[in-house]
Amino acid sequence: MASRSPYNGQRRKLVLAFDVGTTYSGISYSVLDPGRVPEIKGVTRFPAHEHVSGSSKIPTIIYYDRSGNVKAVGAETVTEEICAQAEDEQWVKAEWFKLHLRSKGGPKLAKEITKNIPPLPLNKTVVEVFADFLFYLFKCASNYIQDAHPNGVDLWASVKGEIYFVLSHPNGWGGAQQADMRRAAVTAGLIPNTTAGHARLSFVTEGEASLHFAVQNGLATSGMKNGEGVVIVDAGGGTIDISSYSAKKSASMQTFDEVAIPQCHFHGSVFVSLYAHRFLSSYLSDSSYIADIDNIIERFDKTTKLRFRNADTPQYIKFGSTRDNDAGHNIRFGQLKILGTDIAQFFKPSIDCIIEAVKTQRLIGHRVIRERLEPTSDVRKHVVLVGGFAASEYLLARVLAALKPYGLKIYRPENHVNKAVADGAVSFYLDRYVRSRISKLTYGVRSSVPYNPMDWEHRKRDADTFRRMWNGWKYVGGVFDTILPKYDLQDTLISELKTFRRAYWQEATSLREFKSSSFDIFCYHGHDTNPKWIDMDTKNYSRLCTIYADLSHLPLAASKNLIGPGKCYKLDFDIVLTLGLTELKAQVAWMERGIEKRSEAKIVYDPDTRE
Length: 611
Description:
By secondary structure, this protein is of the alpha+beta class. The protein has four domains: 13-206, Nucleotidyltransferase, domain 5; 219-267 and 347-433, 2-Layer Sandwich (Nucleotidyltransferase, domain 5); 269-343, no CATH class; 442-605, no CATH class. Mean pLDDT is 86; it is low at 105-109 and 373-378.
């Protein structure tokens, strides 16, 4: 286990990490006392938790009544009494709701399986459902800490106002999803909707959280050398997240640099069940037991899928009593027999996804690491498998068999791989092993440049020209001006403190027009290393967000309007972006009496943005 320094803060505080998974969720935490080395602990008791045997996680399920009131959450929802009451009173079940947060412009598979994702309860938004679940997790954490710690009631009272939260999310999510999760945290009462409140909430990708978990569980002492690479495979319920890092060792500590664009694939364990549902719906279509398909899949999910190890051996799903028989469909004494080769096909898309993603990340990682080290350096790769899906022995065996020829060292921590993200999220807050990351997209703004009649690109956009009040010059619009470029081998990594900035100016006929200055930030998704025009390769541009800032207080001098009557004002400023952590930050900077000043800008994300 990696060592950790004593907490050097002046006041006690509490760090709570909520891992809201597609199918199961968990909580980890750390009490930070000045002068003491923080420890990471997990919440291991929940209401009705005895129904979730041997697990520190609970089902990500909420039952609502017909009026939209929360009736049962988590482990409570799988008890026989609650299930019976839910059926009698026609409660509405919300499950897999995390997938509704995904970007609508995401991977193609997400669109294909949308019809299979359970809908949200009527008149409930995903933010509201997410907030209800966060509220429940917070209540569980409060009760557990007060019960499990000596003087727990006093401990909880002492950290009031000093509770910091970490929410994890799939690698493929970005600002829009983080904004929704922040709104949910505010709605749940975890943090106030203020700048100070927002500062008590951090985000971390599931891949990076899993790296921190791996370091805390032996990766740092498993023989990794300086410059060696590691691929983290977080196989969860909804997504499979792949991240790659290179190790940087010193005498005192080990840190990591991100070396490839992280991947996120909708191939988690729930899709094994979806493929099973599709197969068995067809297989039982002419059987009287087709009416039991949901019960059969539920039993498959809880038993057969978990213990499946060998494609050569038939498997059985026990769903009924000894009176349930249908010889024509291999149902005998309430058990449905399925060929192991058929079940292997349910797993195949997920396993193929992991294998191909690791191979791709391995090649990219090798190339990047070799750029930084001597060409002959050893850049062996370690592969770490975590997440609830990684507990599948069949998945592990197939991945091992496929990747063994590449000389990769496959490592699956023994210590509760299903709680990797929650524990790792706390470690992310405490330890910050990842010191630099890469930009997976090119970020910029729609801008304009002085018109050049000798430039063909300008001439063909003559309809998009205009004149500026301030100088009377002719400008051409539609220019994509890069602020933060997509990472390539020649670029430096983005450290936590590295900022990217560009100078701009605006003009107006009144100072009031600067009160709500807004700037659209665009993303470029294509392969052009120097994108210039938004009307070219249009499908690869998307508006990420809009930055709002009040700049009306700046001391500005008026000048003559050179293209119309009256006066005009010119405002010079910089847009400053920071992406060194796991959340995009934006500021507006300007000079005032020779001193640079900055204002935190409000970022509003487009709901359908694709990052």
